[in-house]
Amino acid sequence: MAQIIYGIHPVKEALKPTPPRMRKILMGSQKPHPALQAILDLARVKKIPVTFTSKETLGKMTGGGLHQNIAAIVDGTSYSTVGEILSAWRKGGTKALLLILDGIQDPQNLGSLLRTALGSGVHGVIIPKDRAVGITPAVVKASAGTAIHMPIARVVNMASTLEALKKEGIWVYGASGEAKDLIYRLDFKHGSGHCDRCRGKRDQAPGEAKM
Asked: Are 98 and 19 within one domain?
């Protein structure tokens, strides 16, 4: 299923994989500035067709989002499984670092968290299938395109997923705005040295297995 993404950074990031999961780029400017021209140049190299259209058309396609004169039609989001994330981590030979987000409903919040996760070296993100936002165009925009590169798994039962991760030797840490200890003071090398950071919406613990 095709999906619309928009904004300079999301479209540029979506062009980076080889091959890109992109079908077409739509541009709302006949005289692109350097940032847009760089995308045009990369699209030419990756052999992605570009169609010039109006800003009004882009506005309608993106639901009024801040499109910055560019959008793209890409293949729908391909979620990973928890097993795939763990398999990739094991092959890397590094300490596990996962981010679990339970009940995040605001696309801006999820996008910001994904952007931070990628910059922090997180191996994968786990979110629930129900009562939480998925990877939407608004999330991709808010993440500055990093959502495209981050392995993300959606699960039905968050509590059982946490239990399964703990059986893998991964320590689970719950994050709360009311916690007394700052996350920056925690020693994440405790125990096996692997950890999950769990974050839920305000006043809601992330599942039943919060530690």
From this structure: no
